[in-house]
Amino acid sequence: MLKQNKFISMIAIMGTALAIMMIMTIIVTDEIKEISTAPEINRNRTLYVNYQVKRDTARNSWQSGTIPYETLKEYLYPLKTPLYVSGVNPLWSNIPNTLITREGSSEIINAHMRITDAAYWKIMSFSFTQGRPFSDGEFQSGISAAVVSKTLAQQIFKGENALGETFLVNFKPYRIVGIVDDVSPVFKQAYGDLWIPHTTQPVENRFTEVMLMAESPEDFPAIIEEVRRMEKKFETEHSPWILYLKGPVNNKVFQKGIYGNNAEEIASAIAVQKRKMIFILLILLLIPAINLSGLSLSRIKKRTEEIGIRKAFGAKKYTILIQVLFENLITSVIGGVIGLVLSYVVVFRMRDWLLDVPADSMIPVNTLISFPVLLAVFAVCLIINLLSAGIPAYRASRMKIINSLNQNDK
Amino acid sequence: MEIIKLEGITKVYRTSEVETTALENVNLTVRKGEFLSIMGPSGCGKSTLLNLMGLLDVPDKGNILINDTRITEMKDGEMAEFRNEMLGFVFQSFHLINSLNVLDNVELPLLYRNSTAKSRREAAVKVLEKVGLSHRMRHFPTQLSGGQCQRVALARAIVGNPQIILADEPTGNLDSKMGAEIMELLFQLNKEGTTIVMVTHDEHIAESTQRIVRFFDGRRVE
Question: Is residue A64 included in any domain, yes or no?
C-alpha cells in the first residue's frame, strides 16, 4: 500500500510524524522531569516540601517562602516515617553566582553552590570518581567539607589531584572530601558544581527545599499525616502563629510548580492542570487525526475495486477492516518513529525553554529513552491510527461488492 | 440435480430521480455440471442476474438457493464463506489487483480459508500450470496481454475448486484467438464437472454450450 501511492503515503507519514512530534515533546519533557534515574534515583518514592506559609492569626499577617533551616531542623528532621529527610537550597537562577577561587590565585570561577546535609547523599545517587560525601558527623560539627564536580575540580586545580585540597567558597576555605561526575541541570535537586553543609553557612543563607524519602510510595499518606501533626505542634508551640507546609507532594506535582495556601487550593490547582493537559493532548490528537482521515479516505477510494475483488472472493467485513487498519498502522508506526526522533530534536534544541536549563546543558540519554516513553509512542500511534483510519476502514468494509467492482468501469 | 435455483427474483435499482427494474419475477434453475449461457441485449438484466447468483448483490424479492442452501437468509459473514467455497468469478474486465503479482492474485481466494502459505502457493502454481502461465508467475497484471490476464483470472476462479464458475462476458475484451483459448479452458473445466454460467453476447460461443437462456427487459424469454 505504501508503494502504490508513494506521494500520499509520504504526506500521511509526515502528517503523523508531526502530530506525534508535538505530543511526544510534551511526554518526553514530562518524563525527563519525572523519571527516577541517577542521580535523582529515588524520585518515585520521594515527597517534596518547598514552600511554607506562616500566619499570625491574631494580627492576620503572613510570611511565606521556601523552608527556613529552623523549620527543617525543628519540625522535619524529627519525622519518624520517612527513611531520610534532607533539605537543599533552591537554585534561583541559571547563572552561577558563587565565587570560587584558590588561595594565592587571582582567578575567580563562578559556580552553582548547593547547601545541604548528610541525608542528601542517601537520597541521591551521585557517581563519585574520588573520595566520599561529607558525613553526618562533619555536618553536625559544622566542618567545612565540600564535594565538587569533576569539571570544577579541573577548573580550580588544573590537572592536579584535587582530593583533600583546600579552596575558597565566597572567600571561605573548604576542604574537598569528594569529587563527582558532572550532573545535568535537568536534575533540579541534584544539579550543582559544589555541595557544602548547611552548618557551615550563615543563617540567612539557610533556605531549603525539603525531600522526604519513603521506604515505598505506600508510605506517602502516613508521611503526609505526620507532617500535618508537626504543623499542629508548631501551632501549640508558637500560638497565635499557624504553619502550613505546602505538600508534601510527589515528584509529578512538585515538577509542575503548583502553589496554594492550603491543601484544598493545591488539589484544585492540580485538577485544573490535569484538565488542561487532557484538553491539549486531545486537540493535538484530534486535529491531525481528522486531517489524516481525509488522506486515509483518499487512499481507500483508490482501492475500492481491490476491496470489491477481495470481498467477491470471500473476504469478510472485519477482514477488510483489520487489513485497512493494519496497513494504516504501519504508516502510523513509521510516522511515530520519525515523530519521536523529531521530538528529541525539539526537546534538545528548546531545552532552555522546555526544561528551564541553560541552552548548552546536556540531557542524559537514559532520561530520553525509557519504557514509559516507548509505550506512550506506541499508544499514540494506535490512537491516531484508529481515529484517522477507523471511519474510512469501517466504510470500506461495508461497501457493496458490485458497486466497488464497477467503480473503475464507470 | 439442481445446483442453482432462482425463484421469483426481482431486482430494482433506485436513485433519487428514477427507478429501474433490472429483473422482474425471474425463475431459473441450473443443473449440476451444466454449461449455461445467458444472452440478451444490453440492459436486459443478464449481468444483474449473474451478480445475484454470485451473491455479489441481493434481490429485492425472491429466493436464491445454491446447492439446496437458501442464500437470501444468510448473514454477510456466512455469505462470504459460501462464496469462497462454492463460487469462482471471471469478469469481462478481469478485475485483477495490479499491485499483486500473478501468483498472489491467484492465491487470493485461499487467503480467506484456513490454509498455510505453503499449501496456497502449491495450489496456485498448479492452476497456473493448468492455464499455461507458470512462466509468468512473478509478473504483474500490467505486464500481461489481455488473454493472459483473463487466464490469470480464470486460474484465480478455480484455485479453490469451486463447484460453480460465473463468467460475465469472459471473452468480451479479447480477440478471437485469445477468446477461443479462454473458452477452451472453460470447456475443459466443465468436462471435469464444474458448473458454468456464462453471460455472453456472442451467439456462436453460446451455441457451443449446453443451454441458452435469453432475457429481454428484465424478463426471461423462451
Answer: yes
Query: Is B180 near chain A, with CB under 8 Å?
Result: no
**Chain A contact present for B112, CB below 8 A:** yes
Judge if A318 and A334 occupy the same domain.
Answer: yes
Residues A287, A145 within the same domain = no
Domain boundary among A240, A260, A280: A260
Averaged pLDDT for residues A350-363: 83
Q: Does residue A299 sit in the same domain as residue A383?
A: yes
B52 → chain A, closest CA residue: A402
Question: Would you state the pLDDT for residue B114?
Answer: 83
- Residues in chain B with CB shorter than 8 Å from the CB of A317 are 76-77, 80
Query: Where among A192, A226, A260 does a domain terminate?
Result: A260
B110: domain CATH number? 3.40.50.300
pLDDT of residue A81: 96
Q: Which long-range contacts (CB under 8 A, 24 or more apart) does A159-166 make?
A: A162/A130, A163/A130, A163/A131, A164/A131, A166/A103
For residue A6, with 0-12 CB atoms within 10 Å meaning exposed, 13-18 middle and 19 or more buried, which class applies?
exposed
**Mean pLDDT, residues A34-58:** 91
pLDDT band at A327 (very low <50, low <70, confident <90, very high): confident
Show the domain range for A76: 43-260
Q: Does residue A9 carry a pLDDT above 90?
A: no
A410 within domain boundaries: no
Least confident range from A141-145, A368-372, B103-107: namely A368-372
Predicted pLDDT of residue B84? 94
| Residue A163, pLDDT above cutoff 90 | yes
- Strands ordered across the beta sheet of B2-14: B19-31, B2-14, B61-66, B69-70
Contact A314 B83 (CB under 8 A): yes
Q: What is the pLDDT of residues A377-406, one digit of tens each?
A: 888 888 888 888 888 888 888 888 888 887
Q: Cα-flanking dihedrals φ and ψ of residue B198, to 5°?
A: -125, 130
Total domains present in chain A: 2
- A205 and A272 part of one domain: no
**Could you give the number of structural domains in chain B?**
1
Chain A residue numbers touching B76 (CB-CB < 8 A):
316-317
- What digits encode the pLDDT tens for the residues B103-152? 999 999 999 998 899 999 999 999 999 999 999 999 999 999 999 999 99
Q: What residues in A contact B56, CB-CB < 8 Å?
A: 312, 401-402, 405
**ipTM of model:** 0.92
CA torsion through residues A124, A125, A130, A135, sign: positive
Q: Are A231 and A284 contained in the same domain?
A: no
**A63 is written with which cell numbers?**
510570611
A211 and A188 share a domain? Answer: yes
Do A243 and A283 belong together in one domain? no
Helices marked H in B29-132: 46-53, 76-86, 102-111, 117-130
Q: Please name every residue paired with A115 in a beta bridge, in sequence order, or none if there are none.
A: A196
Do A166 and A114 lie in a common domain?
yes
Domain span at residue B40 reads: 2-221
